[in-house]
Structures are given as structure tokens and as C-alpha cells.
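User: Okay, second chain of the day. Same drill as before: sequence in, C-alpha cells out.
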Amino acid sequence: MASLISSSLLFSLFLTISLLHLSSARRLAESESESDQQLQFKYHKGPLLTGKISVNLIWYGKFNPSQRAIIADFITSLSSPKPITTASQSQPTVATWWKATEKYYNLINSNKSPKLALSLGSQVIDEKYSMGKSLTDDQIVKLASKGPQKQAINVVLTAADVAVDGLCSSRCGTHGSSMGGRVNGKRYRFAYIWVGNSETQCPGQCAWPFHQPIYGPQSAPLVAPNNDVGVDGMVINVASLLAGTATNPFGNGYFQGPKEAPLEAASACTGVYGKGAYPGYAGDLLVDPTTGSSYNANGVNKRKYLLPALFDPKTSACSTLV
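Assistant: Same drill. C-alpha cells below.
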């Protein structure tokens, strides 16, 4: 009887251990599966921005007219169909870069016509620092609310002497959404973006490759195409966040990783601007023979810009213009 009891106990113990191992293995497999899913760039079933959208600019702090023109011309260039040509070849344009976002729309809709059209909207100028020179996220949303909200992306641009929570320490800008007005009795959400001018606060972090990087490989900085390190850096960040806003406006569109810190259409390709890019090297870019500035896209009014690579949802690769 003792032997029978011992055998039963041993069998029970073996069964318990086996079940524990099985449970642990299942939890590990589920955890690995969740990790694999987070590593995949995928569509999370939420809406993308569609229709005719006005990009309204809210200038907070001191910007001179030429600085405002650089970014305003970039926004206008997003929808400019006119090709740029030289004596030898066709040049890449800002509109060509933006057209790459259509791939996200085509994956979820068989209709191949463009789903989103951006245009420059109104501009609000607040040169008197109405909320002070140190802003919180809530204040950024309040500033964004000053622009038209229906069918709009409101872009808050803070000057070089304005500190914003998280600027330099963890981000160069951000995008989000907030409640707007009402249509037919129902409130709607509008999208907003904030980007700071980092020229005097952290150009090595937020205006690279036009400034020496704070960390990592130390290569020589590139010459900014509009001769303004801070604002040319802002263009890069505005471009990146516009792509993220269009394809993931409300946190449930296209992204990779956790929802709280997603990698989006452009941020999934951070630091890549041309073919052959690697950490510390922006890639093989076009160089203006007169100014020596580096760029990869042409815009209206003979502007040149450096724009980030966009993640191609079909090929799962970072796609560049040059």
C-alpha cells in the first residue's frame, strides 16, 4: 500500500510539474507571440485621415518672415504636381515623397484614387508668448485649438527660446488629437502636431544631420538646404509627423510596437534619408553645386528640402527618394 501511495504521489507530482512546465511554455509562447506581433508594422483597424485637409500653422514665439516661408512653402509643396527637371534628369519632389503615403490607403481600400489631399490653410501668429516660454502638453493642445478644426491638421511651431515638456529629453515633436466642435450635434476630433525649433536647445538631437549628433558616430554635419539649421530641422520633424498623423491619426491606424510609443510611417525609418544610410550617415544625397547644401526633394519657389524615408507597408523596407 505504501508503495502504491508513493507511486500515486510521484505520478501526481510528475503531472503537476508537467502541467507547470506546459503552462510556463504556453505563457512564454504567448509572450513571444505578442512580442512578434508588436514588432510587426501593421494596420490596427482605425480610421486614416481622408478628404481635403487644411494644414494650419500656429507660430508661437519669434519667427522671422523667411523662416515662416520655408515651412509654408514645404506644406504647399506637398500637393504641387509640377515636376522639377534639370538638363539631365527629373528631380525628386516633395509631392513625390508625400505620394508614397497612398500605399497605406490602397492596402485597405481597392479604390486607387488618392484618399487624402493636403493644402496650406490659415496661419496664426503669437509673437507675444501668450502662454509664457515654458509650455506643457495641455498648453500645446490649447494653442492647436486656435486654428480651424474641421478637416484640419493644426501644426504648433514653437520658437527656439520656448521650452516644451519633453523637448530634447525625449522628443523633438509629437502628434495627437483632441475634441473639436460639433457637426449635427456630434463632437468631432481634430488632429494636431507640435514641433519645436531646437537650434539653441538641442540641434544635435533634433536638427541632425545639420548639426553634430549628441551621441553616436561623429560625422561632419551637412549644410542645411535653406541655410537655417533650426528650421530645416523642423521641416524634417514636421514631415515625419505629418506622415504619422495621416496614417495613424487617432492611435489605431498603422504603427509598430506599443501604442504608447509607436513607430509610424516615418519614425520607423529614423535617420534614413538616402540609399546606403547607416547610423551616423544620412545616406547618398543630392548636393546643390552652388551652396553645397544636401537635400533629397525639391519644392515650390525653388526650395530644397531634406525629408525622411518612409516605411513601405508592401515591402517592409524604408523607401527613399534618392
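The helical segments are 2-39, 65-77, 94-99, 102-108, 137-144, 203-206, 229-247.

User: Thanks, on to the next one.
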